[in-house]
Amino acid sequence: MASEEAEKKQEEQQGASYTYWVRQVKEGDAAPLPVPRKLTPDDIINDSNSQPPTLGSLWNKAGTWEEKNLHKWASDRIKELLISVGSLEFPAGKAEISDVSKCAGDAFLVTVRNKKRVGYTYELTLKVKGEWTIREEKKTVKGHIDIPEFSFGELDDLQADLK
What we know:
alpha+beta
């Protein structure tokens, strides 16, 4: 009798071990174990049609955090846009951005909870040149505009140093 009880106790301990998933089907189990089956092309097509479209990667169907680096594209685009501004007219003269000598920072596209959001933080140094009328005399002016930081959502607090 004692050996039967010890044997039963040992079986119960083994059934509750970390290898629960490697178990034998016994009489009285609540549900049968799932049987794997090979998917057909129709199964894959039907499954993709039943899911709402997600943003981001195919592996991220839940729409959790996914970040994509856009630094190269954003830096090139910022330079292109600033140079394309051309000449700006002012009451006392005109000025234009001649070069973007510094464009450093980060830009990224974040997909979170199935919504896309952009973010960026950049430092800029712009070379400017122009003509200014000072006391009835046209003078050529050159200088730099340093923007130590500009980022998404903080453009109202933009600071620039003119030299």
